[in-house]
Amino acid sequence: MNSEKIIETTKLTKAFGSFKAVNEITFDVKKGEIFGFLGANGAGKSTAMKMLTGLLSPTSGEATVAGFDVFTQQEKIKKNIGYMSQKFSLYDDLSLLENIKFFGGIYGLSKEQLNERGTAMIERLGLSDVSHKLLKEVPLGWKQKIAFSVATLHQPKIVFLDEPTGGVDPITRRQFWEMIYEAADNDTTVFVTTHYMDEAEYCNRISMMVDGRIAGYGSPKELKADFKSENMDEVFVKIARGENYKLQ
Q1: DSSP three-state, residue 153
Q2: Is the dihedral of CA 84, 193, 9, 180 positive or negative?
Q3: Strand ranges in 2-139 using DSSP code E only, listed in sequence order
Q4: Please, which residues have CB within 8 angstroms of residue 149's CB and are 6 or more apart in sequence?
Q5: What is the crossing angle of helices 96-106 and 111-125, to 10°?
Q6: Interval 67-106: pLDDT, tens
Q7: How confident is the model at residue 173 (pLDDT cuts 50, 70, 90)?
Q8: Of 81, 247, 68, which is closest to residue 155 (Cα–Cα)?
Q9: Is 242 a residue whose pLDDT tops 90?
């Protein structure tokens, strides 16, 4: 893992009136790191991700993503990241090839780049025989792999994954994480939210949010030591209960 910081936040805050959905969070993510961003529904992680991806302006604090300021350079941030939502993010009524052409065009790829990278992606996934089929005819597990591949088609510096393995079987989840490892090995930073605690173990470092604040931050090994727990499920339960509550 590279020591270069590709995401940095300092007291990043988002308020809606008097309610602070994200309250002065401070953390960093390194280049090529797999960074887990965890928290229960309503903890503020989705709001934080929207600020980091340029979809929502912060109220106060500081943050940069891929070297660009979240307050003033949101469009530049969008051009340097990939994003995959927790719901299937491609179009079911288009074929794999049509989705590649559509999203590749949005990402600004040339026709030559689309042909080269699209062909390589289809061959790597072993989907040459179904590349002309509508995606609604493809199993969910394969859809998620395709969505991840399309999200990284333009070779972004960072890819944001929002609950990417929800609803898929354990074998497909493991295969999906192998794709994440491969992306990280190629210096793509992976910022991932997940509610599967076994997946938290796969991350280099983790941030856990409670009520808009960071209540746990570090590697899985460090967090288990901090909270005197044997596994990440126990860590999450203790953090949710407010035990050993440590705000950053």
Answers
A1: coil
A2: negative
A3: 5-16, 19-30, 34-39, 60-65, 68-69, 81-84
A4: 121, 124, 125, 179
A5: 140
A6: 999 999 999 999 999 999 866 678 999 999 999 999 998 8
A7: confident
A8: 81
A9: no
Residue 27 bridge partners (DSSP): 9
Strand partners, 25: 12
pLDDT exceeds cutoff 50 at 248:
no
pLDDT at residue 88, rounded to an integer: 61
Q: Which tens digits make up the pLDDT trace of 2-26?
A: 689 999 999 999 999 999 999 999 9
Continuous H helices in the chain: 45-52, 74-79, 96-106, 111-125, 140-151, 170-185, 197-200, 220-226, 232-241
Domains of the chain, start order: 1-80+196-248 (3.40.50.300)
Q: Which two tokens stand for residue 229?
A: 């727990």
